[in-house]
Known about the structure:
single chain; alpha+beta; NADH Oxidase; 2 domains; 5 helices; 6 strands; 18% strand; globular; binds flavin mononucleotide
Amino acid sequence: MTDLRDANAIVSFLRELRSVRRFRPGAIPRRVVEDILEVARWSGSAMNLQPWEFVVVWDRRTLEDLFRLEGYAGHRAGGAVGIVLVMAWERIEQETFDEGRVSERISLAAAAHGVGSSVGWFTKGGRDTAKKTLSVPPERLVRTAISLGYPEETPPPGRPTLQQGRNHSPAWSTRIGTTKARPTAEVRSRPL
Ligand SMILES: Cc1cc2nc3c(=O)[nH]c(=O)nc-3n(C[C@H](O)[C@H](O)[C@H](O)COP(=O)(O)O)c2cc1C
């Protein structure tokens, strides 16, 4: 069983994962990237289909070309490495979840090595051009790129605390969460 001190350290590590969008110059050792991919490979997926491939982009010019494409990834060009997720795109609902899981694991494994990361999405025509650039067949999905590099910034703190809902459901359940969308009427601020 995990020692409580270990648990505290691991929970802090998980809680502290933040997006890093500005990077110091400096290469990431190949064995670190291999370690990150090994964690990605072990990520769970619906029906254990592992519907992904990872394209690791080391080349600076290709990174710059990719991060100029339509989407929200432009500020990532400063990363040392990009990992582009190529999804099989045969089971859309399941794979959307799988894509999120694997991308979070990549970021966590990177953070374990002191490497910062952030997700950038390609949108619209940016997805097609990214596929062409990386020789990915057109039926696949290329939406998510994760840039990796040694952090040059400490992201500002800030996150709403969890709020616990009451009186909305039988005693056997608790609704808890945060949302920037309009909260449901039952959500009240209460201690756990
Ligand atoms: C599905 C998804 C897509 C995202 N796409 C982008 C993106 O295209 N560009 C970007 O800068 N950040 C992107 N992010 C990062 C979020 O903006 C970020 O996680 C959020 O602002 C919280 O900040 P934090 O990660 O530092 O805690 C994405 C996050 C998720 C979960």
